Here is the input.
Amino acid sequence: MSRVLVIGCGGVAAVAIKKCCQVSEVFTELCIASRTKAKCDALAQELEGKTATKITTAQVDADDVQQVIDLIKSYQPDLVMNIALPYQDLTIMDACLACGVNYMDTANYEPEDTDDPEWRAIYEKRCKEKGFSAYFDYSWQWAYKEKFEKAGLMALLGCGFDPGVTQAYCAYAKKHEFDTIDTIDILDCNGGDHGYAFATNFNPEINLREVSAPGSYWEDGHWVEIPPMAIKREYDFDSVGQKDMYLLHHEEIESLAVNIPEVQRIRFFMTFGQSYLTHMKCLENVGMLSTTPIMFEGKEIVPIQFLKALLPDPASLGPRTHGKTNIGCIFTGKKDGKDKTYYIYNVCDHQECYKEVQSQAISYTTGVPAMCGAMMMLTGQWNKAGVYTVEEMNPDPFLDALDKHGLPRRENHAPTLVD
Ligand code: NDP
Here is the structure.
């Protein structure tokens, strides 16, 4: 028996909500709240008569802490699932603290306005001290650790697939397969084809910011930063085949380096087709990826937000995307004094996802772990006061839940390694 408030009603939230509604014995009541209430109402209507979960909807601007506080006070949830954008992480965490409610999200904080001088001063100091220049990092949310501990509340950060399941895979490898882990390569392959020359699989603004940034990896206790897309490898993925993949900075590297301190190297690779890369480079070169507002015919516009309006809505890619995703982690390390390797991953089929929840696999592979993470918290299987990332939690019940709810693991004890 639980009441859950979901904030956000985009591609990922729609999957998470539909999956919650398949487990009504845990998610008894759900309030879907977002900036555009019409989207929440449409989803609630779609689910009417198909679930025992009691659904209500609300309008909220989650950039405004007071609005979130008012909503939490009136709905009285046991948990707030933030599936809006990373821009709202801190305001929603503040509201949860003010109201004494547990919190979770799927991506770590980054500011909407990267030109804000106050934020920029802290960011530039961090770039120098830590050695990576991504706009997002955990420091903002880790700063809430003590406040959540003192309040006896839990905040679970980044419970999608990557971040999220990839960290549960690391915790699982550490618990069951290795005494010590030497290297971790996280491989994110999307073998899906939507037929467009260019489109992004999740929020275009967040996605394009991430992939156009410099790459970086963790090695021997420090960050190594490289120009965007400077390291390329080929890999033959199970159920997908041979793909080009590129080294990116990714948020879970930062927490894994802290929580599995013996690891000598952690890298993250994502596959991209040539058409995607060519379009992205061109858009970047002409300034369309900029987040700095410009004046256009007397009106201020933000180029990347204008681009978002032109691109296909990621939620609309579902019916036209064919192929599979393959996301997982390859480990090297030692067990009982012997060297060993291990690969744990999931393969997900875009069309199967569409048949089940009318969504493509990127939203599916994020929304299902969000539901499973919420379930871990609501059933008390993950219950610790403080602010945590997924590798700090017991991976076993979470991976069992993923096996059952649509993202089963596969394992390989003799994988091809990435050079
Ligand atoms: P979408 O853009 O499809 O949806 C975002 C939703 O948040 C929309 O409903 C939007 O409302 C709402 N929203 C935005 N601003 C506010 C606000 N101020 N107040 C209330 N609601 C707001 O994004 P996705 O569903 O693709 O992504 C959701 C999250 O999942 C993002 O944080 C993304 O980074 C993360 N993600 C994580 C992954 C992982 O593996 N961990 C992978 C993919 C995504 P409106 O309809 O009005 O715009």
